Amino acid sequence: MTDASKKMVIAAMICAGVVGVFAISDLVIGMPFAGKETMLFDIILLICTGIVGYLSWDAYKDLR
Prior knowledge:
Layout: H1 3-29, H2 39-63
Helix pairs in contact: 1-2
């Protein structure tokens, strides 16, 4: 496959990781989003980042 495909998959993994870190930090310390008022939003974000991370990892394995 092309090098661009690998770069896009890696970028998706990095983006999922960054959003996951933001969601966890929001649950723990209340920053960068609204804090405990949006707990459901943070949980949904964590589920989505897990799905995107897994799909990116699986696609990366297929590209090797």
